[in-house]
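Build the 3D complex.
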Amino acid sequence: MLIFRQLFDPPSSTYTYLLADERSGGAVIIDPVFEQVRRDAALIEELGLRLVHALETHVHADHVTGAWLLKQRTGCRIALSANSGAEGADRYLVQDDVVAFGGRNLQVRQTAGHTSGCLTYVLDDRSMAFTGDCLFVRGTGRTDFQEGDPHAMYRSVHQQIFTLPDSCLLYPAHDYRGLTVTSVGEERRFNPRLGGEIGEGDFTGYMMNLRLAHPKKLDVAVPANLKCGRPESDIATTEDPRWAVLRYSFAGIWEIDPHGLEEQARAVQIVDVREPQEFDGPLGHIHGAILIPLGELAERVGELSRDRPIVTVCRAGGRSAQATVILREAGFSDIANLAGGMLRWRAEGHAVEGGSALEHIAEYSI
Ligand SMILES: N[C@@H](CCC(=O)N[C@@H](CS)C(=O)NCC(=O)O)C(=O)O
Ligand SMILES: [Fe+2]
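Done.
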């Protein structure tokens, strides 16, 4: 089975794709975005995947790639076109190269036109292809900067993409209207720039008159991407919280595990957001915990110190996740959720005040 996720970066309208072979866990990510690496790494970890490659469809002009950051985090190899001009990759790809992930693979097709190093990645069974900024849904990438060339793009689309089966689904690197996917058959018929009977001259005329402003980040993105997204200094990579060992979830919440909280217990404020009867109920509560039920938290944030980190706690870790959101909105910064809540805290044998012995708690008697 193939695991497939389409991820989006709203500021740049970029799609990032995660593909994995479920059986072996081998995964590739196509076009990761620098600012989304924490999110993408969390998903890879939660799905239990091993990132083999970070792939670029091209040297992007509108955002910085997350490839270098992902390599630091996961040890994956960075790969992009041999025609990209980029330094710092582990593998430089050419036509018909195969990028394997577990038992699956992507085949490389050179689709120059937007840049001279543009690639399209075709899944082994030809059921999907990742067209980068060559073919978009009912559009194409622009050809007016980097090594843009409308003639090359026309030929790339016709020779390398429209030769795939009509049923092959096409996933672009961007969409500016919210469209997510198309197919070869659809674009052959309906692409307004080069579908149907539209010839190379017609296409070139269209592309010469797009009249688009240059991407806002062009001057920052291209040099950074020519180094596969390696920052000039390490500052940008050290912004993770340091007050405890935390995990960032794909849901967007920083979490601390029971062992981590035990180590930090004296240094943090523990805020238990359950109802009073639960606080005094069979699960007990953590020594020193401050009881503020979730429904009262927004009005009672004044009771909390802004000088010490906060760990939120509830029964199973759900309400306390929402508590971190409320606290962040109230201006607190060092906040984490106790993963698994009191249920996991007790299951892992940590001490509580009040409460009953585990064997007397219904939730633990199977
Ligand atoms: N306004 C966007 C422009 C993005 C842009 O130019 N995107 C390129 C791909 S890197 C493109 O081909 N755009 C086609 C289009 O906007 O129709 C920005 O500032 O980032
Ligand atoms: Fe691009």
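The pocket of glutathione (ligand 1) is lined by residues 12, 60-62, 133, 139, 141-142, 174, 176, 212, 215-216 (CB under 6 Å).
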